[in-house]
Write a structure and sequence with these properties.
By secondary structure, the chain is mainly α. The chain is about 70% helix and about 5% strand.
Length: about 290
């Protein structure tokens, strides 16, 4: 039982890395980017190509996936996304979902429809005993990276000058510009960083989740469930929601496989009925 919940915890950590970038763009930038999963797919497929075709180490694929997705996100933000910041949420949804279908078609054309798998390095394979529990080494690796990442992100957004400038730019861009804040640069960097986090999540999830052209569509709902349950006003909300949903999903599929796939949706519905702003969201959140 403890092994199952540990695997669920690791799965939740992958969900957090995949969803936290969306939490940044949606919660802090007030932009609905349903194409977030496409940046995760970019990181995952880059890992597949680098490892399977060029023999690149998995450890090098981690920064490569982050940087490649961040650069892609930065370029698209300046050329496309920036034009929709002042548009309605419906326009943002229609635009970003269109990008998802373009990404799905492109990957299907160039890489094929079959699922892509990777082979982890020997140092990340196998299982170890932790407090009498047999756990996967790779799961431990994922948990360690995600915990450090969550702490660093929270400190950046809450304790640094950049975090203050970002919140000011979102609250009132005109006043922020009057105070000397380069709002365009702040938004570009934030969007690129969020896209990079998605790419990193794609790298970490390539072995656990697998990669196929429908990845952004399959996991889009998971991102949105995490954000809905956790709220968008802080990163701690999606972090705790990811753990809850990851454990519930894995345990449900193991103990009650006939209805296991619906457990996280049931949790989401119950949470939204009781607290429409999410478990950890503020009532007056914008």
């Amino acid at each position: 039982m403890l092994t199952i919940f540990f695997d669920g915890f690791a799965y939740g950590m992958v969900l957090f890395v995949l969803a936290c970038g969306l939490s940044v763009t949606l919660g802090l930038m007030n932009f609905i980017n349903l194409a977030h999963g496409a940046f995760a797919m970019a990181g995952g497929y880059l890992t597949v190509v680098l490892m399977n075709r060029f023999g690149v180490s998995f450890y090098l694929c981690l920064p490569a996936g982050f940087l490649a997705s961040a650069v892609l996100g930065g370029v698209l933000e300046r050329t496309l996304y920036a034009r929709l910041y002042t548009k309605s949420h419906l326009d943002q949804v229609l635009f970003s979902i269109g990008l998802v279908f373009m990404a799905v078609s492109a990957i299907d054309f160039f890489m094929g429809a079959q699922q892509q798998l990777i082979t982890l390095p020997p140092s990340l394979q196998g299982r170890v005993d932790v407090f009498g529990i047999s756990v996967g080494v790779y799961r431990l690796f994922v948990i360690a990276i995600c915990l450090v990442l969550a702490l660093v992100l929270q400190l950046i957004l809450s304790k640094t000058r950049f975090g203050s400038q970002l919140r000011a730019a979102v609250d009132d861009a005109r006043v922020a510009r009057g105070l000397g804040i380069n709002v365009n640069l702040i938004f570009t960097f934030t969007f690129a960083f969020g896209s990079g986090l998605a790419g990193l999540g794609g790298v970490l999830g390539a072995e656990i989740l697998g990669m196929d052209p429908t990845f952004p569509l399959k996991f889009m709902i998971y991102f949105l469930v995490v954000i809905s349950v956790g709220g968008t006003t802080t990163l701690s909300g999606p972090f705790l929601a990811s753990i809850l949903l990851g454990m519930a999903d894995v345990a449900g599929k193991y103990y009650v496989p006939t209805i296991g796939s619906f457990i996280i949706y049931t949790i989401m519905v119950v949470v939204l009925i009781v607290r429409p702003q999410g478990l950890f969201g503020r009532v007056n959140a914008r």
